[in-house]
Write a structure and sequence with these properties.
By secondary structure, the protein is an alpha/beta fold. 47% of the residues lie in helices and 13% in strands. The protein has a single domain (4-254), classed as NAD(P)-binding Rossmann-like Domain (Rossmann fold, 3-Layer(aba) Sandwich), CATH 3.40.50.720. Bound molecules: NADP nicotinamide-adenine-dinucleotide phosphate.
Amino acid sequence: MIPTALITGASGGIGKEMARLFAKAGYHLIIVARSEEKLKQLQSELDGHQVTIIVQDLTEADAAKKVYENIRAAGRTVEVVINNAGFGLNGYFEDIPLEEQLEMLRINVHTLTALSHYFLKDMKNAPLRNIPRGIINVASTAAFQPGPKMAVYYASKAYVLSLSEALAVELRETGVTVTALCPGATATNFFKTARAEHTRLTNRTMTPSIVAKAGFLGFVKGKRIVIPGLRNQTGSLAAKFLPRSLAAKLALYMDSER
Ligand SMILES: NC(=O)c1ccc[n+]([C@@H]2O[C@H](COP(=O)([O-])OP(=O)(O)OC[C@H]3O[C@@H](n4cnc5c(N)ncnc54)[C@H](OP(=O)(O)O)[C@@H]3O)[C@@H](O)[C@H]2O)c1
């Protein structure tokens, strides 16, 4: 019997690198995204590993339920849920269409919450006990301060961090761990999707493989928060001690055009 890892947003970026790592570690993968072709490419790259594809738009209101029911119908138990799928939007709050911002909240917040809720009982009762079981929620260094010009995105990641830390404490004696992975700027399609390619955020980026590796190792060690890279760690620490208004101004500087 081999353990199963569910990875959302595995068609590219950090999620794809997570998939490679969990496959190498011997997990059966269930990979979710909208781009069927990209998921199929990853499946054939991981030839020899068990990989199941679920094509699903995770901004749909009942997306998490559909994913859960699909997996249960196949008789699978999931040991690890990696809530990675998500996106950001750059611009002033009033200028970004409301529906786009609500879609962002649906994937970054609602679907992540619902998937965690659906799979938690199964993870607690999973027959495989001697392997790490739990949730990796991909938050961001954006979780540590307000983010003018990406206001809803930063707020959504603050939610992800807070939820993850609270669940980690609730579950501390169950063998199920919760890790919030908080990357800083990472070289993926994120900035294109966010319309933030010309902002200072892209001045220095890490590779998605380094970010995923930090998340994977942190999860295996049962860490509650993983911030990849010294620069990101220092920035997140500084954000904790600075007055919130100053931290927000610094975020505005970073979220603005170079
Ligand atoms: N890159 C950064 O600088 C950075 C920094 C901090 C945190 N993060 C977080 O890291 C996570 C992964 O982002 P990334 O940087 O790897 O960006 P990415 O390369 O754009 O990957 C995003 C992934 O999410 C999936 N996705 C997006 N919208 C979806 C939808 N409606 N339904 C289903 N899947 C959807 C995409 O697949 P499809 O398009 O095929 O659906 C893709 O696989 C996100 O939560 C992001 O907020 C990124």
